[in-house]
Amino acid sequence: MQAYNLLKLVQRHGSTLILKKTTAGSYNASTSEYSSTVKEYEITAYMYNVQEGVLLNDITRGTRSCVIPALGLPAIPTDKDIISGRGDDVSIVRVRTIYSSGVAVCYVCEVTE
Q: DSSP alpha helices (H): ranges in 1-113?
């Protein structure tokens, strides 16, 4: 799918979701655990079910994807980030960046529950 079409999907059918990024903190020797910080970013994205071959030839049936526009995005999505909203929390498994003339236009994230 072309970047223009993906952005139009977000523009017409996207909704406000929350991108949650967890960063590891310091190690606490007394509890033997690492502290972590979760930062939440409000994003506009389009979540959809994927059929094999729609965007990537190796996506399997039944997976879901999320298109996130890159312009003005406060944080770049990465593997293991969480997208939450509309009563659903999903974990990002893989991120594919879509470029136009060498500039990142959007991110297509494969997600699982």
A: 3-13
Four-way CATH pick for 3-112: 1.10.4190, 2.130.10, 1.10.150, 2.40.10: 2.40.10
- The rounded distance, in Å, linking the Cα atoms of 54 and 51 is 6
Q: What is the pLDDT of residue 84?
A: 92
Amino acid making up residue 49? N
- Rounded to two decimals, what is the model's pTM? 0.79
C-alpha angle 90/92/94, rounded to 5°? Answer: 150
Do 39 and 23 contact (CB within 8 A), yes or no? yes
Residue 47 Cα to chain centre, angstroms: 9
Burial class (CB in 10 A: 0-12, 13-18, 19+), 21: middle
The owner of tokens 């310091």 is 26
